[in-house]
Amino acid sequence: MKREKEMKRKRWQTTILLAVIIVVTYVSIAITEFNVLTGITAIPQAIGWMFSHLLITQESLAKLPSILEKLNETIFMSIAATTTAAAVSIFLGLMGSKTTRVSNVLSVLARFIASFSRNIPVVAWALILLLSFGQNSMTGYLALFVGTVGFLTRAFIESIDEVSGSAVEALTATGATYFQIVNKAVIPQSLPQMISWILFMIETNIRSATLVGILTGTGIGYIFDLYYKTMDYNTVALVTFTIVITVIAIEMASNYIRKVIL
Amino acid sequence: MEAASQSTYIKRKRDGRIRIKSGNKAERVMQGTILSFIILTAIAFIIFDYSGLHLISAVQETMYNLYVMFLQPGLSHFGWGEALFQVSMTLGLAVLSTVFGAVIALFLALMAATNLSNKGLTKTVRIIVAFIRAVPTVLWVLIFAIAAGLGSEAAVLGMLFHSVAYLVKAFSEAFEEVDPGIIEALRATGSSWWHIVTHAVIPSTFTYLLSWTFLRFEINFTVAVAMGAAAGAGGIGFELFMASGFYFDLREVGFITYAILVVAILLEIISTQLKNRLFPAAATQ
């Protein structure tokens, strides 16, 4: 009897949830003036257009060296932003974690910095920094850096909390100093998790770097925007293709590393 | 006794001390990864393009800009009502791409799960999804903008593509974790594939699907802001782009940034609450 009631309640909950989703969707369609018909017909249209226009030709291949140079810049930018952000995030993570915090004030501060930099989109950071840093690699690097610090700090706090509760307690009982505890227990135990998060962030950052590049005029995003605006779609196809290859290659490398270390 | 001491091989350092850490493969790979991170970062800082950068004055200027933005926010080109409308427009784009994306992803994920589909189909879906995911969202939106014209359709479709790819991966992994015993039991009673899906697979993974979808909604809000700024898709992102790139109105940039921050933090809180309610076991751990 009790079970039956519970099931009935669950069914009601699901129905209400679905109704809410439908209403929200309907409201969104009205606000954004989304035309469902245009939307549906655009898909085959767009795919047809892609196959007929986005072709890599001999002519566009001649531009490959300059594209690769910019792509290089983007890759290095995302890696540098991720690793330097990771170094800062380890520190903030140690401050923010329940098991390794030094003081409550610092812990709250670390969490606040993380939440603040994570929840302001990378685009906003890029536009703000562009005003005074100008069009160069530093702008993109800093925008990615700030966003990555926010994300990685949250991830590191979670991995440290998850992994090191009992180990920290054991080492504290032996009279180990704070530095020894962190160095011998917390970092070694959460390192595989952290590397996994860093790899994930490098992948994400290469994609975001394209977006930041369009706004700040650097790297592969700039090249894409340039050819897109001059309607040289063959080169656009080549640029997209190089990005796809890069992202998939990095994904495969990090999958391999993850498989070995986790 | 003698045999035992001979058969165990003890790794020693060069000076004869016993190695405490064994150098296994995982450790070597980890050290190699960290080392290559450091080297690549060093190279990156050397090859960066520093043209037109005056670091000290740029940092000072940014500090001043941040000060104006965050301590004196204000609106000059549009009012509160308009700001609210633009935020809801961005939220609307995120809702549409998430809801449509989740529905499409549900079907594709059923095809991509190894325990519910045949090998050939699984592989095909996975390769297509990996390809779609590798192209940045902004490029999808720009490509769709050529076919559908600039506007909400192009933005939603572009974001939709990426959401589908993301959710198919998450959903199919959830489906694969369904207890094989349940599926076997239903199969033994003679239920069809469709019955297994609607009565066993979806009910037992529903909460997971919901929390992944909401997580994607959170991401899509940020993406929608970005699409407004970089692809002219409208919404608060476009206003942000105009305020910083055309009007150079720092106080307005500050106001818009606050608006985005408030919505993003609200979504994060809802998402955490939802996760705690749906998975109480995971939250108490």
TrEMBL record, chain A:
InterPro entries: MetI-like (IPR000515), MetI-like_sf (IPR035906), PhnE/PtxC (IPR005769). Keywords: Cell membrane, Membrane, Transmembrane, Transmembrane helix, Transport. It comes from Alteribacillus persepolensis. It is found in: Cell membrane. The lineage of its organism: Bacteria, Bacillati, Bacillota, Bacilli, Bacillales. CDD domains: TM_PBP2 (cd06261). The keyword Transport applies. It comes from the Bacteria. Its main location: membrane. This is Phosphonate transport system permease protein. GO terms for cellular component: plasma membrane. GO terms for molecular function: ABC-type phosphonate transporter activity. Residues 71-254 form the ABC transmembrane type-1 domain. Pfam families: BPD_transp_1. It is a multi-pass membrane protein. The chain crosses the membrane at residues 76-96, 108-131, 138-157, 194-224, 236-257. Belongs to the binding-protein-dependent transport system permease family.
TrEMBL record, chain B:
This is Phosphonate transport system permease protein. It comes from Alteribacillus persepolensis. GO terms for biological process: transmembrane transport. It is found in: Cell membrane. Belongs to the binding-protein-dependent transport system permease family. It is a multi-pass membrane protein. Its main location: membrane. SUPFAM superfamilies: MetI-like (SSF161098). Residues 87-271 form the ABC transmembrane type-1 domain. It comes from the Bacteria. The keyword Transmembrane helix applies.
